Amino acid sequence: MIIRNLSVRFGAFTAVDDVTLEIPDGTIVGLVGESGSGKSSLARAVCGLVPHTGAVEGARRVQMVFQDPYASLNPRMTVAQTIAEGAGRKEVERLLGLVQLPVEFAGRYPRELSGGQRQRVAIARALGGDPGLLVADEITSSLDVSVQGAVLNLVRGLRDELGLAMLFISHNLAVVRYVADVVAVMHRGRLVEVGPAEQVVGEPAHDYTRTLLAAVPRLKGRTGLRE
Amino acid sequence: MTQSGRPGPRVKSVRWSAPAVAGAVIVGLMAVLAVVGPMVWGAAADRIDAAAILQGASSEHPLGTDNLGRDLLARVLVAGRYSLLLALAATLIGAFAGVVLGTLPSVLPARGARLVTGTVNALVAFPGLLLAMFTAVVAGLGARGAVLGIGAAIAPGFARLTQTLAATVAGSDYVAAARMLGVPRRRILTRHVLPNIAEPLILNLAQSLGGALLGLAGMSFLGLGVQPPDFDWGRLLFDGFPRIYVTPEVALGPAAAIALAGIGFNLLGDALARAAARTPAVRRPPAAPPGEAAGEPDAGAVLEVEDLTVTFPGGATPVRGLSLSVAPGEIVGLVGESGSGKSLTAAAIGGLVPYPGTVGYARLRLAGQDVATMTGKELGTALAMVFQDPLAALNPALKVGGQLAEVAVVHEGTGRAEARRRAVARLGQVHLPDPEARSRQHPHELSGGMRQRAVIAMGLMGTPRLIVADEPTTALDVTVQRQILRLLREVVDGSGAAGLFISHDIAVVGELCDRVVVMYAGRVVEELPADRLAEGAAHPYTRALIASLPDLDTDRSRPLAGIPGVQPAPAQVGPGCAFAPRCALASERCSAERPELVAHGPAQRVACWEVS
């Protein structure tokens, strides 16, 4: 599928400025940028949640997984009811299996689940909508690192298993590099660099990409952050 | 936040306050009166006695009689059913109309929604009683008109409440997800919106009932309500009122009944609302763990913590026997997953553990002084705290500069002008661009990074010996995060203060801090110099934390290492090593006996049987 000449304007402010980005099936495209760069507006536009100009071509349906798993599940609905909303009752068991949750979870309410488990339920709900494109907006940034790893593995597994096209949004380049095949860097509403993950991280072409790379906290070669 | 397994059945213990009990008793009595009143006193209320017309109180007629000689006490008791039924009908009509009006904007197309919203706004601005009288006059004199009128008066308030609540839910992520799945609007309303706003609406219903009762009595009193031969409390008051100077009891009887019922419903409604809003309170504060005699104090340390324990009633102990010290100019990182007790440790140091938690320690000294003996003023200047959400630490109604100046005025008695000058200087010190102009802005006018700078500047208004930063960059971007971390380093280096930095991100901790303290289930499991983190971490948990974090060199062809299972809840920690159930190296000894923190090479300590 391809996002073609997409722009989002809020009054006089242009949040997303003429973005064209291809996301082939079976590919995870990572979108990085700081807050205010327009990456979440782009995600919401692709999902049809905000008015925009331009087109999203070739995706049958777009589904989204949100950042905060504590706010994205209806507290009054069980896991099965939540997943069945898009997929129907019969699919619940298969979808729980896809996101590696035991079938017993079907009758539970969100409050009985941990953050990582909730995020899996949210992914299952989105998969139930039979998406041509899955948009994941900072889905691991409110999870503990130990849980984040498992969710990232799941995301990569789903790409391989289902041949899913995915737009994976994060402000953390290390996370995006690990999970994505292609990395797109967004700055002030525009894409400033797009390329294979290793290439963008290894040989960044744009200054802004280099700034983002320099900001990634790392254990090796630490400086103590003295100037 | 992490939960293991299924929680037990929730027992919500409602503690009954005196007003709540009074409300429940009154409402209960009213309900009984409504059921039995007409059966018991019905005949007496209708018995006409030509010999006892317009009498005052007597032993036979405690509230006197009316112009047909009927006993007024019996009539008041009988009128209860009708009065309450009318109030109930009016409330239900008002609530139904209000909920429909309030939810319509969620299902109508944009123009229709705006029209309904505008209408509701206009009706809310209109005086309720006027609306009631207007409706009653149009609908016709009598009980029906009065009920419709009061219903109409109640409806706009309900509509506004419903609209506000529904708008909050409609903006939530789960409604967005449902829309993307193609769930129809009507179904979103019934499955997502209404169930999540039902509770406050029902509470409002109970309170409205009291209002409707008073309103109906008012309508009857004005002659717009119930017409003879029917009678409710308002009608009895209307009939008795002309005689109030001669025989006041004939008017006071129905008036007292109205007042009592109104008070009852309002008290009960208030109590219900409060019970719903209150998080379950816990009683029975436990005895604080006894502080043992401490060893020699460490003269060089700014912060000394020994055997710190935070306990909550019910046996939950989120922090267990924690010891750490921080030297001047040093930043110590406290790292662990959510629920490891790291934030409560910071709270305990600042004396901010929420009720009903209790803090026990063998030693807790800041700059050589026991924090328990420090005054609020001393603690306020010696300790600076920076939290995750800078917006919560700043008062949204006050300008940034004024808030900073306040610190110096309150803690040090500095003059206004001098305090302001210092505030601007401190804002400059944290590299806030154009500090003079920024100091005159409100917090919402600053970006997240600027706000966090302002909070740090606020901590620098005193002469802090210790800066505690609890996840100060978690809500920020990596680029801004780096700037704030640099600032913390600069401030610590420049002031010679000690730093305690708390984060779940071991990479951030490793990069900024000099020493790292790793917490798991309320205990320190490893302590080591930060530059040894990448290669020299010994505890299986520390190693797993590092392995599960992707960095710019992670092998993309292999799955990321995770940590199976979840951290045990504070109340569920067994006798052995808390990490044993998730540990690949765990032996029988690990689950039976807890390893102590012991030296493991220079400047490193580990609590693990298998590696030490």
TrEMBL record, chain A:
GO biological process entries: peptide transport; transmembrane transport
UniProt-listed Gene3D superfamilies: P-loop containing nucleotide triphosphate hydrolases (3.40.50.300)
Keyword Nucleotide-binding: yes
Keyword presence, Glycoprotein: no
Keyword entries, A-Z: ATP-binding, Nucleotide-binding, Transport
Single GO MF descriptor: ATP binding
UniProt-listed InterPro entries: AAA+_ATPase, ABC_transp_ATP-bind, ABC_transporter-like_ATP-bd, ABC_transporter-like_CS, Oligopep_ABC_C, P-loop_NTPase
Domain of life: Bacteria
Classification via CDD domains: ABC_NikE_OppD_transporters
PANTHER family associated with the record: D,D-DIPEPTIDE TRANSPORT ATP-BINDING PROTEIN DDPF-RELATED, TRANSPORT ATP-BINDING PROTEIN
Family: Belongs to the ABC transporter superfamily.
Record's protein name: ATP-binding cassette domain-containing protein
The organism of origin for this protein: Nonomuraea phyllanthi
Automatic annotation (TrEMBL), chain B:
Any GO CC annotation of this UniProt entry: plasma membrane
Transmembrane annotation, as ranges: 20-41, 82-108, 120-141
Keywords for this protein: ATP-binding, Cell membrane, Membrane, Nucleotide-binding, Transmembrane, Transmembrane helix, Transport
Alphabetized GO MF terms: ATP binding; ATP hydrolysis activity
Source superkingdom: Bacteria
Protein location: Cell membrane; Membrane
Pfam families attached to this UniProt entry: ABC_tran, BPD_transp_1, oligo_HPY
Recorded topology in the membrane: Multi-pass membrane protein; Peripheral membrane protein
GO biological process terms, semicolon-separated: peptide transport; transmembrane transport
PANTHER family from the UniProt entry: DIPEPTIDE TRANSPORT ATP-BINDING PROTEIN DPPD (PTHR43297:SF2), OLIGOPEPTIDE TRANSPORT ATP-BINDING PROTEIN APPD (PTHR43297)
Family: Belongs to the binding-protein-dependent transport system permease family.
The protein, known as: ATP-binding cassette domain-containing protein
Organism: Nonomuraea phyllanthi
